[in-house]
Structures are given as C-alpha cells and as structure tokens.
Amino acid sequence: MLRMLRIASCSLSILLLAAVGGSAQAQDIGSAVALVEQFIAAHKTGLETRQEGLLNNAKAAAPYVIDGLAVDGLQGRLGFDPVYNAQDYEVSNIRVFADAEAPFLRGAAQVRVNLDNFGQHQKFLYTLVRVPPDNAWQISDIHSLTSDWSLADMAYDLGLDLRGAGGPEITLRNGEMPIPCAFACGNPNEPGNGGDSAPIVVPGKESIVVPDPVVVPGMEEGDLPGDGLNPAGRNLLIILDASGSMWGQVDGVAKIATARQALSGIVGDLNPAMNIGLMAYGHRREGDCTDTEILYPVANYETGRLVPAIQDISPLGKTPIAGALEKAAAAMPASGQSSSVLLISDGLETCGGDPCAAAARLAASGIDTRVHVVGFDLKDEEHAALQCIAEQGNGTYYPANDALSFAAAVNEAVGQAEGDAPAAPTENPAPATETVFEDRFDGPERDAAWRVDDAIDELTAFTPEGTLFVAALGKEPIFSNPKATNRFVLDRPLPEGDFDLVLDFKMPEQTRHERLMLSLFNAAEDQVGAQIWLEPLGCGTRLHLELTRISGGVDAPQKTAFDTNLFGGPWVDGVCEAEGRARGDAILETLGRNGAQLRLKRRGREINASLAMRLPGDETLSFDTEAITMLRLSGAASILAGHGHKAQPGESHFEFDRFAIEVPRQ
C-alpha cells in the first residue's frame, strides 16, 4: 500500500554554513546531510513514479551508495524497505540532521534521520565515507536505531562484497559545497518536531527557533524531600562545578559531558539505603557569585532519581566554591549519621571566598562529616589549592586528568562516602581452583606444548613486559578457515571432568573487526569455543561475547552460537547515544590497555563462555553466555587471534599474558 509522503522544503544546510563562516568541516557535514536528503528524495520519487525503491535499481542508487550496495533487486532480496524500515509506508515528519555528538567519527560522517511511519517513530543513523574519483560522500551503511539492524550486515549476509573491490565509484559531485537541501533538513528541534538533538542556532534567522530551556527538576530552598531519610543509611551531598570552564575539553570531550556520564552511572548504582543530595554552582547566571542551588536536599530517593537533574546541568558562570560549601550545610539533614560532601571542580575559587576555611566549618558542623574533592584537569599548583579543601574538611583529595581517571576518582570517593568496609581476610584461604597447566608467555621461546598451524613467525614476538604479541593480517586468520594463520593448539590432554580454559589477553581496537577465539579444536569445521569480537557501527564499536560450535564436516559445516552484544544492555545500554558511546569507548580502551579474561568452561555436559574485566576505579564487569550441551566432548585447547569475516584490509594486534587450564575444587 503506497501512501503519499508529506515533505516540507527548507534551506537550513545553507544557513548553517553561513552561521559558521563556511568552514571546511561545516561544508563537509553539510554535504553529507544534503546527500542523505537527496537519497531519501530520490527513493520517494522512485516509489511514486516507478513503484520501485531506490535500492532495487543499481544505476539509480550508484551516485548515493558505495558500489557494494548498488545492486539490482537489493531491496527485494531484503524483503522490506530499509529507508523507511517497513514494507508498506505512510511517512511524515522526516528530519535529517548531523549527529550532534559526533558528526565525524574515524573519518566517516554521521547523519541522523528521524521519521514517522504509520505514526510509529523511526530513528536511523547513516554512515557516509569519502570515495574516489571525486572524494565525495557516499552512504556505506544505514543503521536502524529503532529495530537494531544494519544494512551493511544484511547485505553481507546476502553474499555482497562491501569492501570496494569493484569498479570506480559513481558519485554526486558534492565535494566542494553541499548539494541543495532537498527537504525537512537539519533542525529536529523546530516546534512540534519532537527532536532529540541539540538545537542549531543561526544568528539573525528568525525562522530557526531555539526551544525553551529545559527546566531542571530541583527544589526551592525550604522544600522537603518527599522520600524522607533512611536512618540506617549514610548521607552524601554531591556539589558539581557548572562554571563556564566545564565546557573545556579533555580528550575531545567536554568536561561537563564526562562529569554527567560518570555521576549518572554512579548515582544509578548507589546502595538503596544511601541518602543523597545534589547541588550545583555557576549553572544559571553569568558573573553571579551567588549562583549556587540545592537541586535535591539529602534524602533517600529512588535509585536514579537524580540522573535527569545531573544531565540537565549546563555550565555558564563563576566558581563560588566557598559559597557553595557554606550553603551545603542547609542541604544536610540534622541527624547523627555520617555525612560526606563530594565537591567536583575544574578550577579555583573566583568569587573571593576562602573555600578551605568553609570546608573546615562544614566538617565541624556535624558528626563525622567529611569533604572529599575531585580536581579535574588542573595544573599542579591548582591541585594543591583544592587539596587544602579536602584536608581542612577531613576528607580525601582525588586528582583526575582524563575521563578514565575522573570516573575512577568519583567512584572511589563515592565508595568512601558509602563506607563499604572490606571483607575481613581469612587465614590462608583455599583456592577455588587448581591450575593443572599454565603458560605465562614469558619467553624467550614458546612452550614446547604448543604447536602453531600455518605459522608466520614474523607476526609473533615475546615482549619485554612478559607477553606474547600476535599480529593478524588479511583474510586468513578467521576461526572457520582451515588455513588460518598462527592458530595455537596445545598438545596436551585435557582433564576428564570439569575444567576452565583461561586466557588473559589485551586486544586494542584497530581495524574494528578484531576477533579472538579460545576453543576446543579438532578442525576448523569441528570446534566449540568462546569468542570475543568487535563490530563496527557508524556511531561506535560494539563488543560481542559469543559461544560458538561448528560441526557437520568440511562439505556442510553447521554453526550454533549464543551471541551477546555486551554494548546492547549487559555492559552498555547502547553506543548510538552520547552516554553509551563514551562508556563503550572507555571499556574498549581498557580492553586494549589493561586487558580482560576470556574463559571456556565445562561443567558436566555443558559448555559456556565467560568474559571478565576490571575498569579503572575497580568496577568489575563480567558476563556468562548460555550453555551448549554436548554429549561427546573432544579437541585440544586452541587460541586464534584474528579478524571477523567482514574485516577490511588492515592489521590487528593482540597480547597473550597468561593461558591456564583450571580444575574447580570440590
């Protein structure tokens, strides 16, 4: 059933260029946005005039999409329309705009598309890359944020080669200036649009309306919290610096964004017994040294209640630290409970107060009251000045100079405020497992128990740190390939009963197709294993843990798998929003720098996979897959560091720190 498409013309792309002075980057993102608009308009025209979607016609699609997606009959083979995420359509309210958080990521452009189809809101992320001969943008993937599918993935599953091995690309000549704005472009925040990205402000253009500011859910002074106090819980007041300097960037991310993310995660995971409050300064008025506000007095709120208020704090003004500490006493309940204040600041007092003296008075105002301080992105002499606040407040000072150390510092400070006492040590505790084989890869020679199939010695080396470095190149190192290079196989019998294969490793994100397999191996077509692998999306990289079994012989191998996208809920809610992308990137950085532990576990007739890692700040992440039942178990322990089957040309690096076979004690 074909329905008419309601569209509205505009010229926001050109206005945006004027507003930013026609910078090269603005032109680039304007070109990308305009290309997506042209693509959707051409798709609409094809449906209305030829009853054919654009992705069914290779010649018509070629100027807009990479060669691998310009295939006759593609939409028919997919079985639905990926431009509208439907078979039939009644589309309205199309909005096309640059990804506000990351318009460019790893050289690709990120363009958002929102639309309504039969009244259902649909969200898409388009990824565009530069291609020859014109160095013009072309669409390399469409990712449905609503239904969580990827056009590139589906095309690959249909047997299409997306790596650009075909002939020269046909492009629209849009490399210099954006092609004309087709329709409904740019600003999803116009009244009634229900947009969800930051507004684009074009000075002097009355047609572009900036929405009213979001009202921060706070309390007027004197209001009482509705949830009361938990007499058994400790008290914590968080004071967040929202002075203008918090818009400064660390590692390419605004400090306020890092603070919002870290605090939102921490307050969402607090002990339910905790009484917590929130205060900010410098967030409402420029140049006003009285701009301090108690957003939530200390009380026992529902978990995550403060998160919207944290997310809505926007830096603007001065840094009245002393005034905030003086006012903090009013947010604290009058009780005999232990109380802590956590001050987060990226600068020194700018309003003439004495924050060290104010901290001393605050600490003396209650029983066991402490003032902890996190100093973010400061010079050495500035750290010393803020450390005085913690010392006078009987608290602890935590310096932080990047996002990871900031999250760790805040997590540690809140943990101290919660008062979690460490478990009492036991005398000579018995280990839970017995190690029956271990290789720590100290070198200089490989343990004789390992054989290496299709070895390329130039791609392996022992490092001075006591790890085995392994590089993966090209198409060969894929777990299902009989000729996979540098497959390590342990020539040693396995225990008869329950056991774990354990691998401590590091896996930096390089090609974004890294894949590591720890398996019980008979042959490429006969193995069961634990896999950790990366999947590139336009808005970020996803991390997967998969339990994989391949059986059935060379001619007709069959695959059974339990695959979990750890960035789709278990560890990160999703990498296509700012908070999820930042947390996902932090996890991947830790995976490459500090490493993780992969396990393949046998219990009776069941096999499952497990991944565990520790983030800075002692946050521990772990996940176990579902189990596969196997009546007959055979094979040798094996490790393969390689690529996924969709990998682009490139080189991936891995480090093995420890391999062990462990047997659980009864």
UniProtKB/TrEMBL annotation:
PROSITE patterns: VWFA (PS50234). Pfam families: VWA. Coiled coil: none annotated. Residues 235-414 form the VWFA domain. Residues 1-26 form the signal peptide. Keywords: Signal. This is von Willebrand factor type A.
